[in-house]
Each structure stands twice: as C-alpha cells, then as structure tokens.
Amino acid sequence: MGYLQGVWAVWLREVIVFFRERERVISAIVTPLLWVLAFGGGLGASVQVQGMSYQRFIFPGIVSMSVLFGSIFYGLYIIWDRKLDFLKLVLVAPVPRSAVFLGKMLGGTTDVLIQVGALMLIGIALGLASPEAFIYAIPSAALLSMCMVSLGLIIGSRMSSPDGFNLVMSFVMWPMFLLSGALFPLDNLPHYLEFAVLLNPMTYGVDLMRFAFFGIARFGPFADIAVLLGIFLAFAALGSKSFERMQV
After folding, report:
1. Domain range enclosing 154
2. Model pTM greater than 0.85?
C-alpha cells in the first residue's frame, strides 16, 4: 500500500466512524449554542464590546472553542483504538506511521469542520454573522483544527488511560480557551499574563476567526496564519515521531 493510499484509508475510516456517532455531532453543536444563547445572550443584554453586542463578539470565540474541544478530545480515540486492538492492526500495516498520523489528523479535522460548519450556519441564521464570513471562517477553522487535532493526537499517543487523558486535557484546554480572547478582549487581561497569551496557539486562532467574521484582528491575519502554520508544522513533526515510537 502506498503512502497516500494509507492516508486515504485512515481518513476514510475516521469519517465513516464519525457519521455513525450522531450523538457526538449533536452534542458538539448544542454545547457551543448554549454558550452563545445563554451566556452570550444573558450577559450581552447589558454589555457591548468593540461596538457590537456581546453575543456577536463572542460568536467567533465560541466557534473557536468548538474547534478546540472537538480537536483535542479527538486524541481520546487513540486510546480507545489501542484498547480495541484496532490501532495495532493499523500500525503493523505496510505503511509509514507518519501516514497513519496524517490520515488521523485529516480525519479529525474533517470531523471538526463538519461540526463547525453546522454551528456557523446556525449563527448566520441567528444574525450573529454574515454569509460572506462563512467563506473565510472555514479555512481559518481548518488551520486551527489541524494544529489542535495534532496536539490531541500527540497527547493521546502518550497516554494509556482515558481518565488520565481527561485529566491532562483539563489542564490544557481550559487555560488555552480562557487565555485566547474568546470571551473578552485580550487587553482586559492583566499584563503579567501577556507572555502566556502570546504562547497560546488559540490566541492566534481566535484572532484569525474574529477577523474572518468581523474584519477585526489584533495581530493581523497574515501574522495569525504564519504563527498557526508554524505551530502545525511543529506539531505534525512531533506527532509523526510520537506515532513511530508508540507502543501498542
């Protein structure tokens, strides 16, 4: 089996599994909507940020949150695949393990984009974004998801227990989300957190997403794209190495 055939086979398997788990799709859409409608609507009734309602302001951040949570938790499936011995069958196949990593990364990204696309369409129907924003937001979500899925796979490849994975994720996802500017302008944060903010990949993902929706960016879209591309290449290289060393 060739390299690209291996990538394709793994990607196709991940997408088929995703469509069989309808509950996963529904929960991935309902939870962000609760943040937008309940949290954003409740607080947004009395707050405006950067000349728009708070609900509109946080919508790109909630879309980014959906990307983050869906992508990072994708690494959990590595652990379950190992427990079901499916991963062993894949890793002993005559294809490089980097092809397995790439196929899973692309499969996870595809799954996340389907969820995010549905969330964006609902946001457009609710008047939280324009239809034109969809064109720019999907590539932005794809780039962010590639970074975060890669990170989730790296962590998942090094863990043997779902409980351990969930514990690690609690210390990874929430700080990344809360320090990204998804729920409030970054200028509202204390200055001593600026270093953590600048090191956070989600900061640039949220900034790029907000530019896609409203044309507002703190760092600028080209800087955001450059940083996210660099992070993805680093995570992809590390993820490929992690899969090569992974014990099944």
Report:
1. 3-245
2. yes
